What does this fold into?
Amino acid sequence: MARIQPTPDTDGAAGPDGDGGGTGRRRKAVRYAVPVAVAGVAAATIGITSAFAGTGDPDLPKISAQDLIAKMAQSDTQRISGTVKISTDLGLPSLPSGASFGADGQGGKGGGKGGAAPSPESKLTELLSGTHTLRVAADGPDKQRLSLVERAAEYSVIRNGDQLWAYDSASNTVHHSKAPQAPAEGKGKGKDKGGKGGQDAPKGLEAASPQELAKKVLAASDESTSITVGGTAKVAGRDAYQLVIKPKQGESTVGSVRIAVDAKSGVPLKFTLAAKSGGKAVVDAGFTKVDFGKPAADTFAFTPPKGAKVTEADGKDAGKGAGAGRDHKNALPEALGLPGVGGDASGAKVTGEGWASIAQFSAGKDAGAAVAGKGKSGAKGGEKNAADAGALLDSLGGKVSGGFGSGRVFSTKIVNALVTDDGKVFVGAVSKDALVKAANAAK
It folds into this structure.
């Protein structure tokens, strides 16, 4: 894993090589485990300024960036509960009239196919736009609860010992499985200090927590990153330092990442991702209420409600009215990621380094033809369907050309993707010009 080598902070405090901590501190800081009782991709950006309003920035002792990272690494917080608000504005264009996306590609929310409970991964996609409320609680590595609170429903993931439950109150459906066991080696191995079992905790919504978002960004930071302390703040009524992370590479679309770290416990309380283009934050996830006391024991108790349809991990329905249901072996999957941007890049060739990384893979000739507007439109209403498809493509991305040929760039505030007419895909948190340059080089 790459070392974090922050630059000195603005108050002139010593950098990573001048405090005597040296390599050991950096190594520990990068692998640190922070509490993730929650949920953060995480998180992230959010119109909740009023929720964090305070009486002014607190006056705290000065601290260097490296020492603040070390404070996070040394945090021994095992218990946490509270409310997280997360707002996301990826800058996606409005879809043409009549077009919509749903959890199962059917234009709306709700349960999975065949009446099965939606997976935490599918619920995570709902955090990609708008503002949402999450309630979190943790008591050690094997007791966590995370709930996505909606207007008239609630979706919860509960771990209690070796039992793992996902419950969707809207459809009254439940998914049940055995929680993975923690690694036997080393005390605290595989355990996040906020009470979330690192590799063994449920994956999905908790990826939106301030803690998990902070963990991923710091773990991916290297010599291409500037890390400083940017003042103080009040978050959920607590004094916090603000750790500011900025890419040094000009082609990155990321402006900055700001992490509010609890001055007393070292727990990340808020995560804000800003685009270089400015405007509203891309992701803003933070606690509006937080408590480090022991949560009530019944917080982690769960019994399927009467009449609920229960699906076991082997895909068999335990409740009445079992339908065709889907295989739920992966109903509690790893958090979503992006190739070349801290996610799963399996099967992709990654070029560039640090924040300028670009993943390249093939989507197939059919995808290229569709992007080029040469896909099959069908016998009925062919011209109208082709026109609608063209309008949708034009709303999502603009055409580009170069030595590689031609293609289309699909853009958000942070991530851009170039799909060529022959089906090659180049994606990263970089500028459009950087993608075209990468496509030209790959030709």
